[in-house]
Amino acid sequence: MDNSICQVYEDEIQSLEEEIKLLAEKYEDTQQESTFFSDEELLMSIKSFQREFQGDPKRHESPSDLKTQLESLERDLSFLMKFTGIQFTSHSKKTVEKTGNRTLQKHRLSGNCHSLSFQLEFQLLEVQNKENVSAVITGLSIIMESGEDSDVSKFVSRTEEHGNLLTFFRSLSTYAEWCEHRRCTFLHFK
Amino acid sequence: GVFAHLETLEAQAHEAAMEEEETEQQEEKMARLKARVRELRLRRDKLQAKVDLRQKGLGKEGGMLDPAEPSARAVLEWKIRSLKAMLQVFYLTGISGKLTRRGVCFCLSTAYEGIYLDSYYLDLLTKPEVRIHRHSVPIFIPLEHIAKQYLQTDIRRFLAVLSDHLNAYTGRRYQAEQLQEHFSDQIEGTLQSNSLCNLLVFKYNVSSKSNTFPFSVRLLYSDLCCSLPTEVTVSC
């Protein structure tokens, strides 16, 4: 009799612990998604963080670790933007649903590829499997600046229909590069 | 007589003491578990309230902070998380990567109609000239041929062509897997294909009224950058 009551308590403890874990993650996500710090605030934080650390050497993650990590990520990002020609000017994501191993996020992205600017919205569903994470795009919506061009608008609506985000970027990249070549060639004749 | 009686009494007292200890232990355990449940419930309710408050406060983008000033560390960690999220977006575009000590390690991702499939790595060295150090591209993709054509002269073109091959391959493979999975009752046996998945052979049955007609199909994809067949042969 006593054992079964203990078991009930133990089960409740386990389910509460899981619930707390999910809630903590949810809180962190909403914190991340709803805050924004400007570059000056960032610079000030780096300086003050280094000053703080000087007085307390017991901290396990030194500011140089965080700063190094920050700089390495910024370098990688800046390289990718320069290399691919795709510059993202803004990105926001919001967690719509998070249960067990499924996460559904809504993304808003805007940027340009050479001279072509775009604005995107899509939902990304990620499911954690045993070996990897599967990702599926739904609800893709694309707005392009040069949307009046019939070829571009046909391409955009076909891409939206099939959720082909990857194809959109690959084709955008190639198309933008050719536009650049064409522009340079015409300049040559001026 | 008396001795045996005393022994029995001693044994009984001992057993009674043991039982009492056991009950005490059980009660302690129960009390501990009860307290833990109370503690966790409290923590859960507090967190839930925090989350609900945040959800309500979210109407406009950006600017909603905790009443307490965020610490410098929190700001840095926020920025690091934002940058990581941005790098993840590059993964969705098909070409992402990171700088290494001696060059760049590119990650080419593939997708078919919004479903992301395998991704492949290409570790490049840049000095004295661009060359491939390591990669995870399958052997049946003509990597060396493509590298010979473009790697030294136009690295963007090299990655674009390689990406086309990889996307077409995983697209064909995915379609074959889906066909096998969703039409297994009509397909006889299993789909036969080569590693490159550009040659597919299978038999399927079409039933009408009381008859079943067996068909043999051969799909050939001679354009390796395409996930649609160039030649279809159906025989009865």
UniProtKB/TrEMBL annotation, chain A:
Annotated keywords: Coiled coil
Domain of life: Eukaryota
Entry annotated with the keyword Chloroplast: no
InterPro entries: CENP-P
Coiled coil: 6-33
One Pfam family this sequence matches: CENP-P
GO cellular component, one term: nucleus
Biological processes annotated in GO: CENP-A containing chromatin assembly
Stated name of the protein: CENPP protein
Gene designation: Cenpp
Automatic annotation (TrEMBL), chain B:
InterPro entries reported in the protein's UniProt record: CENP-O
A Gene Ontology cellular-component term: Mis6-Sim4 complex
Matches recorded under Pfam families: CENP-O (PF09496)
Major localization listed first in the record, in broad terms: nucleus
Organism domain of life: Eukaryota
Segments forming a coiled coil: 6-50
Subcellular location per the Swiss-Prot or TrEMBL entry: Chromosome, Centromere; Nucleus
Keyword line: Centromere, Chromosome, Coiled coil, Nucleus
Signal peptide stretch: none
Family membership: Belongs to the CENP-O/MCM21 family.
Name of the protein in its database record: Centromere protein O
